[in-house]
Fold this sequence. Notes:
Elements: E1 3-7, H1 13-25, E2 28-32, H2 33-36, H3 41-49, E3 53-59, H4 67-74, E4 83-90, H5 97-107, E5 112-119, H6 133-155, H7 167-184, E6 191-193, H8 202-206, E7 212-215, E8 218-221, H9 230-234, E9 240-242
Parallel strand pairs: 1-2, 1-3, 3-4, 4-5
Antiparallel strand pairs: 6-9, 7-8
Helix pairs in contact: 1-6
The structure holds flavin mononucleotide and iron/sulfur cluster (2 copies).
Residues 9-14, 59-63, 89-94, 120-124, 227-229 line the site of flavin mononucleotide.
Amino acid sequence: MNTILYYFSGTGNSLVIARDLAAALVNTTLIAIPRALQEPVAGAADAAAAVDAVGIVFPVYAWGPPRIVTDFINSRTWNGIPYLFAVCTCGGFPGGTLTQVERALRARGGNLSAGFSIVMPGNYTALYGAIAEAKQQKLFARARARVAEIAELIKARRNRPVEKSFLLVNWLTGLLYKFGMPKFKTADTKFWVMDTCTHCGLCVKVCPRLNIDLQDDRPQWHGNCEQCMACLQWCPVEAIQFSRATQKRKRYHHPAIKAKDLFIKQGN
Ligand SMILES: Cc1cc2nc3c(=O)[nH]c(=O)nc-3n(C[C@H](O)[C@H](O)[C@H](O)COP(=O)(O)O)c2cc1C
Ligand code: SF4
Ligand code: SF4
């Protein structure tokens, strides 16, 4: 079975899941969504139409898909794919995320055959710090087992209703998403940099939206933010802060992933 697996990841959780899933499925091509968004759509659609299965792996943001994932879904059509699946990673509660993704794909001709969620360490340092490493390892072990199960279902081309919460919870989280998500784009005004910045430029390279540049050797944000936290989490000297809350919070990224694995521009 030939599979294309598109993924988006700010701090590596979804990339690890995508890699593990690709290894279990075999014959799988991994494509980063921020890069795919920069490619001509026609060729990409032809490639997707020629495979047996297409999957999308991404984190949950505010009980829904990240804006970049919605933009990606809306950037092409999804009809004619024999088996289409989605896997979201979350810090504990995905709400109606997969229902929203199913709806977005349907609007572009796609029929989601299955949708799964996997709990990983939370990464939204604007609200909380990283959990203890021992707890992280427990979640990673559980996630590995879950990926093995999911891979078997995908290989067997099982059609399954997407995982979702109760109707009322789905509806409520959908409402919160609708009002919360548009605010993320310009929430980068709350980022600031400490004098410990070494001007290394890593934050520029990990940003999936190319939303940061260095001016006078210091990062500047330009109002096209996902709130993925990559800039803050990957800064080697923890110089990036978000409002007043993050100075004492422990940073997080998946230990098996390196910052360069997430660069949009390859070869940097
Ligand atoms: C902006 C933002 C919003 C988030 N919202 C949720 C949420 O609603 N529910 C949840 O369970 N986790 C939430 N999380 C946690 C992430 O979904 C989780 O840590 C995910 O595995 C991160 O994946 P990544 O490392 O591939 O970026 C949020 C994280 C961020 C950065
Ligand atoms: S990653 Fe950190 S140290 Fe490097 S330029 Fe950005 S803020 Fe400065
Ligand atoms: S500015 Fe930071 S939080 Fe916003 S998209 Fe770029 S890396 Fe993510």
